[in-house]
Amino acid sequence: MQDHLHEDPAQLLLKYAGKTEFDLKFAIQQIHARQKAKNKIPSWAVNPNLLFPPSISMEQASSEDTALFKAELVKGKSMIDLTGGLGIDTYYLAQNFEKAIYCERQEDLAKLSEHNFKQLSDNKFTVIHGDSLDFLSKSQENFDLIYADPARRGGQNQKLYKLADCEPDVVQHWGLLTSKAKTILIKASPMLDIKQALIEIPEIQQVWVISVRNEVKEVLLKWQQESKVDDRKIIAVDLHPDGKREFSFTFEAEEEAESVFGAAGSYLIEPTSSILKAGAFKLFGQQFGLKKLHPNSHIFTCDALPAKQIPGRIFKILQEVQNPKKELKQLVPSGKINIITRNYILSPDDFKKKYKLKDGGTQFLIGTKSGEKYALYLAELAR
Predict the structure, then answer these.
(1) Over the stretch 243-282, which tens digit does the pLDDT of each residue have?
(2) In which region does residue 59 sit, left (phi positive, over 0), alpha (psi from -120 to 50) or beta (all else)?
(3) CA gyration radius for the chain?
(4) What domains sit in the chain, N to C, each tagged with a CATH number?
(5) Count of C-beta atoms within a 10 Å radius of residue 131
(6) What is the pLDDT of residues 199-253, one digit of tens each?
(7) 89: closest CA among 123, 62, 52?
(8) Are 220 and 210 in contact, with CB atoms under 8 Å apart?
(9) In sequence order, what E strands does 5-124 have?
């Protein structure tokens, strides 16, 4: 496996089929999994003693970035992960606990994780193969943390987004969970309807929307025994190599806020994807003194940048493109440019197809609605 880590798994299977005394398919599955894990779980991918499951479990697993972030939110003596999976979240969350219980219904996955935990750590982990809610209901122990990442695939492999549709159903079993924990942390789909989830579980006190390099990866719902729901906050976080960017607010404050509208100034600002997912469409502009181009565009503008750091991408406008058909050939001679459209007549893919453009370069074309008209701007990143 180590000798062929950087080779094509399909070609390896053809080359060595019937020529090995070991399980060739398993070895090649491990190579393929490590190639996929290289960016998602880098510290695990380089550890030769660890084993990885088939690709679907790899896809559902948390990234190392998000697991490390979640570990910052909780601590205590004991924790239980009701939906262990590959064990990424279990392992990193457990760094702030004295002992951890990992539960998994799939026997092969449970055995694999038990092997990995022994390679990674001391005897902190207990692996339970079976129904986690059944185990929890029969346990005499109360936990400082119950963590769950409910399965979001239906019987026909369709994607599920509502909490009550996922397995285990944390909505139906909420009473059991709160009777057994001081803190509950639920990982949900990045497509989760946050307001609907808060109707399903109104006791949730904190919601975290997590993006990695400006791509929303997951939504976290947090409940604590001693906290009040009146203090509920929505926190949008973008994890980026340059640093962590946060924006927190309440839905009540967002409803009361008012946007100031205006024509494009010297700069265009696009909030991080986690802020847009969280729904801070008015407070964002109000907090940073920015004007909005249109109620539904969620693109902001200003003539001079504020001193404090804005959690988003800031673009310096080079010029407005009045006639794309005529101007783009001169403005983009290479045919390569980055396209952003929000509340615009064309999607980025349709725009590229219509004007025969490809992604690339350092400049951007930003299409949006400004006032009552559609506008297109040539821009570059300001910082």
Answers:
(1) 899 999 999 999 999 999 999 999 999 999 999 999 999 9
(2) alpha
(3) 24
(4) 59-204 (3.40.50.150), 258-381 (no CATH)
(5) 13
(6) 999 999 999 999 999 999 999 999 999 888 887 999 999 998 888 999 999 999 9
(7) 62
(8) yes
(9) 78-81, 99-104
